[in-house]
Design a protein that fits this description.
Strand 7 and strand 8 form a beta hairpin. The chain contains no helices and 11 strands. It starts with a strand and ends with a strand. By secondary structure, the protein is mostly beta strands. It is 0% helix and 47% strand.
Amino acid sequence: QVQLVETGGGLVQAGGSLRLSCAGSGRTFSTYRMGWFRQAPGKEREFVATINWSGGDIYYADSVKGRFTISRDNAKNTMYLQMNSLKPEDTAVYYCARKFSSGTVYQQTAYDSWGQGTQVTVSS
């Protein structure tokens, strides 16, 4: 496993922006597909976005498409999530994780090494 630490969360007004970072340890970070998930209060954790090792294969949840951008810098062992045009419904704890199995890119069970999460709160 790798150890992952998310940072960058905070309180922002609707329409604002935040950039989340996910810093990973270990030399194998760059070889894995990585993903962002989120969990809102009272709801199950859901898929947000995923990026393969090279950054050339990316998928987004429909709810964030066109507003969020996932990227990674393997030299820094870091993945990012740029979040623009934020909405109150984006309020959640955001987690990053490593895809380790052959399940679909949307399946939480295909990911491990979950970070502790970072809180994003969007006020209306």
